[in-house]
Amino acid sequence: MHLIRRNRILRQSPAIRAMVAETILKPSDFIAPLFIIEGQGVKEEISSMKGYYRMTVDLTLVEVKSLWSLGVRSVLLFIKCKDELKDNNGTEALNPDGLMQRATRAIKAACPEMVVMTDVALDPFSTYGHDGIVADGEIVNDPTVAVLAKMSVSHAAAGADIIAPSDMMDGRIGAIREALEQEGYNKTGIMAYSAKYASCFYGPFRDALDSAPGFGDKKTYQMDYANRIEAVKETLMDVEEGADIVMVKPAMAYLDIIREIKDRVDVPVSAYHVSGEYAMIKAAAQMGWLDENKAIIESLTGIKRAGASLIATYFAKDAARLING
Ligand code: PBG
């Protein structure tokens, strides 16, 4: 054969492949989600997320420093609220001395440069396990947004760098931005969960926080996974309302959405490689059916290649270690 173009030339050695690789993961691409519990010196493995833990604030600080030393530059905080503090209105979410606020202050004091993102939604605080206030069996939008705005201000006051609303209420990005401006927090960013789908892949996360919905599902606020155009609409609205970063969630079954949004917005796009996606890789690896490290790097590279410049992932630490070699 006399071929003019032989594509295998650029694949023939590790050196050539490294030269022409289009997508390179780096530790600062990752946002490490952390599950925080009350107490001291406690680390509990989450049964459906092998190798991932809920930790008390003191141990969380050790984890944050270790992530920082590996090159990870951002953590996303979730707290497990005590049952007796849960109600329908997310009262505890506004407590200036609540677990989220204390954890945020402690992390900013221990590792000031780490970018601290805080989850904003009512589900960990809700007796119903829903992201908003429940009235007559419905999740009511506007009263919920009012609480989310206050919650965001309270996180900003505790030192959060970026507020991450994961609730999917209408108009919350604009309301949060307005509230932050009004209270003088004009350096606090917003990472909007813009295209967040009603997904079965959140199952293990709800085990981690004991936050599964007590009735019904989340389909009246989270998006239908059949939809693509709606994701673009949601995301463009969040950008208009003041989102600094937008997010697609979950990641692996939504790579088309990540790309579509990447092509449509001029803000950084993030993706959330969610708990169920973590659990699938872990479970298959435990059975000896997948090479875990390879599955991690291939999955995260695919998500970045699709257009996510930031990836929230429970593999943040493992991936950073693998990349650093
Ligand atoms: C709730 C929230 C969820 C996740 C992040 N924030 C679960 C849900 O919407 O029910 C899921 C994250 C994951 O599965 O890793 N506001």
Average pLDDT confidence is 97
Strand content of the residues, in percent?
15-25%
The biggest beta sheet is recorded as:
8 strands, parallel, barrel
Domain count, please report it. Answer: 1
Tell me the helix content: 25-40%
Q: How many DSSP-defined strands?
A: 12
Write down the CATH topology. Answer: TIM Barrel
- Unreliable stretches: none
Number of helices: 11
If you compute it from the alpha carbons, what radius of gyration comes out, rounded to the nearest whole angstrom?
Answer: 20 Å
* Strands ordered across the widest β-sheet: 1-4-5-8-9-10-11-12
Straight-line N-to-C gap: 41 Å
| Name of the CATH homologous superfamily | Aldolase class I
State the CATH class.
Alpha Beta
* Ligand names: ligand PBG
**What CATH architecture label applies?**
Alpha-Beta Barrel
Tell me, briefly, the overall form.
globular
Structural class: alpha/beta
- Secondary-structure element order, as H and E? HEEEHEHEEEHEHEHHEHEHHEH
